[in-house]
Amino acid sequence: MKKKLAVLLALLLAFVMVFMAGCGDDDDSGSSKKKSKGNDDISDVDDSDIELEDIIEGEWTAEFDLSKFIAAKLKEDDEAAEMLEYFDFDGVKMNMIFEFDDGEVNISIDKDSLTEKFAEIMKNGLKKYFDAHADELGGSLDDILEQSGMSLDDLIDSMMGEVDLFAELDDIERDGYYEVDDDLIYLADDEDELGDEEDYIKCTVQGKKKIKIVEWVDDGDEIKKLSDFLPVIMKKN
After folding, report:
1. How many CB atoms lie within 10 A of CB 62?
2. If you average pLDDT over each of 20-24, 29-33, 88-92, 192-196, which comes out highest?
3. Residue 203 in contact with residue 185, Cβ under 8 Å?
């Protein structure tokens, strides 16, 4: 039984590590040129009667659809690709929260909801995988867990606790300052650096509570990777 559980642990860890490698992959050859396929339903409505600077104050959430990106990255690994049919990544979204307050800005990622969604996918996928290979693995996932005295929740929590699955997202989060100039939101860590042409978000106002992010310029590698997912809609909370 210990051997079977070890197989399960190794399988889960390998899949998680491939996922992490995919998210951290930095391909300069296409990251800023490829158009996102995960946000194709975004409207092109332009409300020119509303000024960005008049509505920006407050808390906003931008939702990035990671589903197709994750699936594409996992397909690049042969072992992960074989398992992909058992894992459904539809609905994996990353919520980025922007808080604009009198010239100061806080950008954060809701990593808790992202982690919970990924854990749910892992649970369902592993069960399907082991049920499909019960004969060669010596039993279903439920059988193996029952004999080991470990629940599926315990297993997932244990494995995801060994790695910081979304550690690279920390580089996106920031506290700093902002300044609005027409359709641009300039960002800076120090207030006297505002207006830098290499640190801004270009937006299109689509109503008093909806803004479309069409471009994000930043020196950081993680922000450059977000170009694959633009444009995205930012909604006022």
Report:
1. 24
2. 192-196
3. yes
